[in-house]
Design a protein that fits this description.
The protein is built from 3 helices and no strands. It is mostly helical. It is elongated and about 90 Å long. It holds the Pfam family 7tm_6.
Length: about 160
């Protein structure tokens, strides 16, 4: 049992805007090359910050784990106890300063990403027509006002 090839065109139920004629192989190839270059750059630009932050956080966590192991080893070793503990305390202090620096540098950027993602999701939901009643419209306005209030409060504390 085989199906026959249907070569009839399909009529879309809505109008579309033809920006360019992509029947030309040269233009089609250039558009594909452009998309191959643009889409990963947008994705990596948006995700790259998160990956860098996660990588630095994992690095700090690993350094704390190594420090914890060295403290246990220093406590079990009775010779040069004071010198070893002094070095470990200095290293612990440096790690705490590093985590404070990470927190100070990345807090605002993470908050900005969370707020922008939440706002974009709420706008896209509103755009799709899911919020069409008066109650949902007022809830959306309350959400927008509270979001702007939180944003202004966080910028005031900076």
């Amino acid at each position: 049992m085989t199906k026959q090839n249907n070569s009839m065109g399909y009529q879309l139920p809505y109008k579309t805007l033809d920006i360019m004629d992509i029947r030309d192989i040269r233009i089609y190839t250039l558009i594909c090359i452009y998309e191959i270059m643009v889409i990963p750059s947008i994705v990596f630009g948006y995700v790259g910050f998160d990956c860098m932050f996660i990588n630095l956080t994992i690095q700090v966590i690993a350094q704390f784990a190594i420090l914890s192991y060295k403290v246990k080893a220093a406590l079990n070793n009775s010779e040069n106890y004071h010198d070893g503990m002094k070095k470990l305390i200095l290293r612990h202090y440096r790690l705490i300063r590093l985590t404070e620096g990470l927190e100070d540098n990345f807090n605002f950027l993470i908050m900005q990403q969370l707020i922008s993602t939440t706002t974009l999701l709420s706008f896209s939901e509103k755009q799709n027509g899911h919020g069409s009643s008066f109650q949902e419209d007022s809830d959306f306005k309350i959400f927008e006002v509270s979001l702007m209030k939180k944003l202004s409060q966080s910028l005031d504390t900076r």
